[in-house]
Design a protein that fits this description.
Elements (H helix, E strand, L loop, with lengths): L2 E10 L14 E3 L2 H15 L6 E9 L5 E17 L2 E13 L13
Antiparallel strand pairs: 1-2, 1-3, 3-4, 4-5
């Protein structure tokens, strides 16, 4: 059964947040990890990244409101696979891993 997810937050691995144009809505997938993979594919295509693209994504389930946090690594592979006797070219592979959310550190004076 498919569910609908929204992208709440997108960060690079260095902690830099991506802009609000990357907060995608209504991603249909059977699970939150699949929705995270689809979101990263769209974001990397929009930013025209052709090599390795690594992002931390927060996904929200629209039905339950639960948040999921994933680290998605998308890299170029150029792999040819035979499907029913027809060669199919896969340009990218993805690895989706569940991660703990990073705490937001507030900068301020030390006592």
């Amino acid at each position: 059964m498919s569910k609908i997810y929204d992208v709440i937050d997108v960060m690079t691995t260095t902690g830099r947040r991506k802009g609000p144009e990357n907060h995608l809505k209504d991603i249909t997938s059977t699970g939150p990890s699949g929705a995270a993979g689809k979101a990263v594919t769209k974001i990397c295509k929009m930013s025209k990244t052709s090599g390795r693209c690594t992002l931390l994504v927060t996904i929200k389930d629209q039905a339950t409101g639960k948040h999921y946090h994933y680290k998605v690594v998308r890299e170029r592979v150029d792999k040819i696979v035979m499907r029913n006797g027809v060669p199919v070219l896969y340009k990218y592979s993805q690895v989706v891993r569940s991660v703990q959310p990073k705490p937001i550190v507030k900068k301020g004076k030390k006592n």
